[in-house]
Specification:
single chain, three-stranded antiparallel sheet, 3 domains, disordered N terminus, 24 helices
Length: 524
């Protein structure tokens, strides 16, 4: 009797398991059927939420394939990885100093000074190789007394040198990384050699009458040679890149699909004559060379001269903008944090960049809430459609600002256009996908929020021509212009939309982004 009861219990248990299995299969089928009933955009949103639940590695896999549009805040030399600098120094037969860790491009093997060795030997010395990578980047960096993350980061640029014979290789490296991550457009900040113009400006001397100073420089043959030399440097760099990638040929590298333009970098840490001369040089080059789409001021914003002359430099930009109104301006502003500088220096940099310096985009903008009347300023930026280039890892590493201490969500609240960017991906050892993961892992963002930032990156690129989106305040970039409604995402535009796309480099990039989005979302 006991045996019969036990047998019956097992039979019931088997039937129960079968019932549960059927329920699970039915639920799975229902979920699959439900997902297939959704639009591709909704399925991508579901995939994003699932990746977020599974953690950063799953988010990285999701975002790596995602069309990310443009990276608009990229310093070319800072985007190159340390391993590349070591290889190039070896090819150049440079000497390397072990203390301090740096390349000495003024001396070449075998004639290395005492205390230095040929860079070629680094490739067979793992300890020195690792030490150089750490010195040239933020890898394994731990702050210590007298060596802050800020100082280590900016100090790296003086360690690895800058031999423009390899500029084509640098562009290829950055473009190849971008292509692999489904990026399509880059604006690379770079500074061609301007030593002759710098020396000549010092000889001419400072003239507070900027119009007169401009005329003196334009009449100077050294300055005119500087303009021609800068244009040649950009042309040569792109030509080298194109040869390396076999662009325009049947076996072209994927990197050829990434459009590259330049922003002329002005070094704001020099005295006024040199800063004005180089700023004028940048405006002249950008007004003549279609591959140079604008200018930007660089070097640490907390440097002594950069702080002392900040308002003067914005006045320089105000004047030159009146002479060259079609040259685009993006400015590093607000790359500061409390404690770095005196409190007064946190109160006006972003406002002056926007209102005096005519910045169409702001790089970093981290100290916005320490500005005078920050809410009014953000409202003004939203109304002007002044975009902020958000560099989350850079801000965390250099400024110690991350999470809720970063104004990212406050900018969003006020409708200020935002796009993620890398700043110096080689020095920081990151990529644009990493920045998307960081944003998703830190802030309550949706799939549509990330699509908007990717669209914003192209819509605010310094490319000529009309865009495909109607502008509202705040920006949401989900309403195409009438000529293209119902067509975005198609392989080719038709009718009036085709005419618009043909006439506009910006529209061409935006059209391609929407095509990529359709393919990406259809994959889920």
């Amino acid at each position: 009797m006991l045996q019969e009861s036990s047998s019956l219990t097992r039979a019931q248990f088997v039937r129960y398991l079968l019932f549960l299995t059927m329920l699970v299969l039915a639920a799975s089928f229902s979920r699959a059927a439900f997902a297939q009933s959704l639009s591709p955009q909704a399925r991508a949103a579901l995939a994003f939420r699932q990746a977020r639940q599974e953690g950063p590695p799953a988010l990285y896999a999701f975002f790596y394939r995602m069309p990310k549009g443009a990276d608009l805040h990229v310093h070319l030399t800072g985007a190159v990885y340390a391993e590349t600098w070591i290889q190039e120094a070896s090819l150049d037969n440079d000497c390397v100093s072990a203390a301090p860790l740096r390349f000495d491009s003024a001396h070449h093997a075998p004639a290395c000074p005492a205390g230095e060795t040929p860079a070629a030997g680094v490739l067979s010395d793992q300890s020195l190789y690792d030490a150089l990578i750490d010195a040239f980047s933020m890898r394994a960096f731990v702050p210590s007394a007298g060596d802050s993350a800020h100082d280590h980061f900016f100090g790296a640029f003086g360690r690895f040198g800058d031999d423009d014979r390899f500029d084509g290789q640098w562009i290829d490296e950055v473009a190849a990384n971008a292509a692999a991550q489904n990026e399509q457009y880059l604006e690379l900040m770079d500074t061609p050699d301007f030593s002759g113009v710098k020396a000549e400006a010092g000889k001419i001397g400072w003239d507070p009458d900027l119009a007169r100073f401009r005329q003196k420089l334009l009449a100077d043959p050294v300055f005119r040679d500087g303009v021609a030399g800068s244009r040649q440097a950009f042309d040569t760099a792109l030509a080298r890149r194109n040869r390396m990638e076999h662009c325009g040929q049947p076996h072209a590298a994927p990197a050829c699909q990434v459009t590259v333009r330049f922003l002329y970098q002005v070094l704001r840490g020099y005295p006024p004559p040199q800063v004005f001369a180089q700023t004028l040089l940048g405006f002249e080059v950008a007004s003549q060379d279609p591959d140079v789409v604008g200018i930007n001021y660089v070097m640490p914003e907390d440097g002594y001269i950069a702080l002392r002359d900040y308002s003067l430099q914005m006045h320089m930009l105000d004047y030159l903008h009146s002479v060259y109104p079609r040259v685009h301006i993006s400015l590093h502003a607000g790359e500061l944090a409390p404690g770095m500088v005196a409190p007064k220096n946190l109160t006006f940099h972003i406002r002056e960049a926007v209102e005096v310096g005519h910045a169409e985009r702001i790089g970093h903008g981290v100290d916005i809430m320490y500005e005078n009347h920050p809410w009014q300023l953000m409202k003004e930026m939203a109304a002007r459609h002044t975009m902020v280039e958000i560099n989350l890892t850079s801000n965390a590493v250099i400024l110690g600002i991350s999470g809720n201490e970063h104004p990212f969500m406050l900018y969003r609240k006020m409708g200020v256009p935002l796009a993620l960017s890398t700043d110096d991906e080689g020095v920081a050892r990151i990529d644009l996908t990493h920045e998307y993961v960081r944003a998703a892992d830190t802030y309550p963002l949706t799939w549509l929020d990330f699509k908007l930032m990717a669209r914003t990156s192209i819509d605010h690129a310094f490319l000529p021509g009309a865009g495909l989106w109607q502008r509202f305040t705040p920006e949401h970039l989900d309403t195409p212009v009438p000529a293209c409604r119902g067509q975005l995402g198609n392989a080719q535009p038709a009718g009036a939309c085709a005419a618009l796309v043909r006439s506009s480099q910006k529209a061409q990039q935006e059209w391609d982004l929407e095509r990529r989005f359709r393919l990406f979302e259809a994959s889920f």
